Amino acid sequence: MKLRLGALLLTGLLLAGCDQGGNDARHIKVGVINGAEQDVAEVAKKVAKEKYGLDVELVGFSGSLLPNDATNQGELDANVFQHRP
């Protein structure tokens, strides 16, 4: 149940973070923390591909602030706990 809820929430986050102005509107680059969070993100990645045709690239990080820094610098489209469209 928790895995399904996590996958659903992450899919919503992925959709919210999609940038329509990029080269490929069907591709999104998302930062995740290595470990259990990344496991849930892998499930959401499959759902995003199968249901919505999105190509999700997951980028793993070992520190909790690193995904925010990468998102703020434009290296990522979103991360799983904070994003900027």
From TrEMBL:
InterPro entries assigned to the protein according to its UniProt record, in alphabetical order: Lipoprotein_NlpA (IPR004872)
Alphabetical list of PROSITE patterns matching this protein: PROKAR_LIPOPROTEIN
A Pfam match: Lipoprotein_9
State the Gene3D superfamilies in the record: Periplasmic binding protein-like II (3.40.190.10)
Q: Which GO terms describe its cellular component?
A: plasma membrane
Q: What is this protein called?
A: MetQ/NlpA family ABC transporter substrate-binding protein
Family note: Belongs to the NlpA lipoprotein family.
Membrane topology summary? Lipid-anchor
Q: Which domain of life is it from?
A: Bacteria
> Which key words tag this protein in UniProt?
Lipoprotein, Membrane, Palmitate, Signal
**Organism, scientific name:** Enterobacter cloacae
Coarse class of the primary localization is membrane
Subcellular location per UniProt equals: Cell membrane
